[in-house]
Amino acid sequence: MNPPESSQQRLARSRAQVVQWLDHDRTQRDAFAHSGLGQLSALPWVRSIGNHPLASLALGALTKWWMQPRKARSSTAGVLAVGTGLGLLRRRPVLTVATVAVIGALAWWTQIRKRPPPPLN
C-alpha cells in the first residue's frame, strides 16, 4: 500500500503533468506551423473561411488527416467523424442537410459528366 500523498506533492505532480501536456501541444503546433498545410492556413482568406462552423470542421479534419503518420491507421477517426456529423446534425440540421445535399449533387454531377454521350441514331 502506498503512503498518502501530501497536498504539496499532488500539486507538484499535477503541475509537472500540465507542463508536459503544454510541451507536447507546443511541439505539435510547431510541427503543423512548419508544414505546407500550416503555411496555407495562415493565409487571410483561409482564416476567414475557418470562421464558418462546417468549413472549420472540414479544415480541422483535413489538418488531422494531413498530420497523422501514413503507416498508422485508426478506426476511431471514422467513429469521431460520425459522432461529429451527428452532433452537427443535431445542432444545425438545416445547414447540415443543405451541405450534404450540395455535396451529393456535386458528386452526382461529376459522375454524369464522366459518362460518354449516348450514340445518335
Structural write-up:
The chain has 121 residues and is mainly α. The protein contains 6 helices and no strands. Helix 5 crosses helix 6.
Question: What is the secondary structure topology, with strand pairs?
Answer:
Blueprint: H1 7-33, H2 36-41, H3 44-49, H4 53-67, H5 76-91, H6 93-114
* Spatial extent as radius of gyration: 23 Å
Number of strands: 0
Order of helices and strands: HHHHHH
SS summary, helix count: 6
Overall pLDDT metric: 78
Low-confidence stretches at least 5 residues in length (pLDDT < 50)? none
> Structural class from helices and strands?
mainly alpha
Largest sheet: none
Labels describing this entry:
121 residues, mainly alpha, 76% helix, elongated
What is this entry, summarized?
With 121 residues, the chain is mostly helical.
